[in-house]
Structures
1.
Amino acid sequence: MSGDYETHYINQPDITYIKEKPMSCNLRELTVTSLLEQAQGEISKAKTNIEIYLHNPVGIGEHPDVLGAIQDQLDVIAKAEERIDVINKHFLDHH
């Protein structure tokens, strides 16, 4: 490259106005958000499974005990909801 620093970067946009959070804050936010979204996904999946069991119980060959299979999915929902409650209580800033 030819030219000195000033000449080379003269046409670069001024981005000094952009305020970024420190990396640790972004990482914390991303981690907590990911944990919440994972729990919400587990709830959605379990609810879908329950709806399938309720609407077509004979179509689920590997689960002859439909009530037991539904209870297992309810337990998944309960665990995920509890995880969401813990995250909200202990790791989210509520001002």
Note: The chain has one domain: 23-90.
2.
Amino acid sequence: MRDNILRNITQKADELANEYNRTRDPGIRDQWYKLIRMVSQVPSVSEEARLPSRKKTLGKARTFRSD
């Protein structure tokens, strides 16, 4: 999932960089910087592993009795 997100951001950033180099429009440069800042918000691989699973437990929960 992370690789797909980063690939998408990279592709868009490359397109914006090429457009900026062609036009030198400061608005495009600002869009590029905003897009690059999004990279820090993408969860790392270790954070993805910590996400809770959505498995449902079936049956009754076990209870342990202390005597």
Note: Residues 2-41 form one domain.
3.
Amino acid sequence: MDTQNAASGASAPAFDPHSVPGGPPGTGADSLADSFATSYAGVVAFIAVAAEGNFAKAGDRLGIGRSAVSRSVQKLEDQLGVRLFVRTTRSTSLTREGERFYENCFPGVERIVQALDDMRELRQGPPSGQLRVCSTVGFGRKIVAPLLKGFRDAYPGISVDLVLDDAPTDFTKDRIDVSFRNGRMEDSQVIAKQLIPMQMLLCASPAYAAAHPLPRGIDDLAGHRCVNFRLASGRVYEWEFKVEGRMRKFAPPAMLAFNDADLVLQAVLDGEGIAQMAGYQISDHLRAGTLLACLPQYSPDDRGHYLCYLSREHLPGRIRVFIDYMTARIRALDLQSLESQLLKNRPAP
């Protein structure tokens, strides 16, 4: 953008429809005129059928009958002079031309829908409505919940229902809009935006370290008192390490196990043993000296804290502003402690 013109209020250059590339030389075709003649309703119907896989479901999604969808697509095919779908009594699939048309059309239609939503929100005022959010228990209690006051102050028209649950999120059944997840994301059905890396560090209290020399290698852990975390599935969490570029798991002989991450942390602070915990839990304690890190050089580096939501064509304003707010605030927090621990454990020259 020309900042000088923008600052002075100069208008944007006038749009010249003849500047839009036309058809083959000598035909006199004009792409803008052709686009105007082509039915937008037909394009939307085409996108819906391609996404839903059949005309009936597309009609349900658009709120019109199957026959109306079929007529719109037929008209579009006539206007384009190509066949977009292969129709049989059992299935509907895109032709090669249909696949190409879908790839080119979908981003444009998505932007048009978003523009319409933006205008509606502009007319209706600031984002409002209810937001249902899910988070793992520990991360939700320590990180997400304290940030909600600032969010509510910024967007008073949005009400937030925060659910803390370590079990996998069922977006549809539980009517979840946004979910905070930890670890590795393998669900391709959701959009997973990494907020920060998830650092996992072994820790012990100074009192425990005074009574039991800290381990120098992973094999030394077998002789230590270990505190572990029980997953929502009922399985005890296996500690993970990265040794010479490869993942190594260790099933600690736990003297204590809890299904709550805060109770694991408290047991370690009380000198009950060693545990592997997430950076967001322990960063303040490591800086204060109430916890000591063990074997930081073997910490895994392929985990993350993610903000997840369904793969929708466009997001309501209340979800979009929540995602933006939480992303900025969480990334601004000082939750990373691995680098400082590696420097502290580096041998003197």
Note: The chain has three domains: 27-124, 129-196+304-332, 200-302.
4.
Amino acid sequence: MSRFLFRASVVSAALVALFISAMNSDLVDVELAFVRLRSPLGVVLVVAFVIGLLAGLMWRITWVAELLGERGRLRRALRVAESRARANAAAGDNAG
């Protein structure tokens, strides 16, 4: 079911991008550092949207990677704390 929803969303996004490109056919100048490009407005809008999506995806990936690293540190700390608690409990049983 999730594959179908993913494919349906990709197809609908492609159709929306095609519609935006068709409805905005005016030519615009895009200045990039040392280059000036002349392109239809619809294409510029779609490319800007895709660049924004990719930038957000990269940010989210780094955020998830940080969370996974933190989860690993917390699991190690929990194992150490549990082993100390077991050792303290065993020492208390032997002393009593």
Note: The first helix runs from residue 2 to 23.
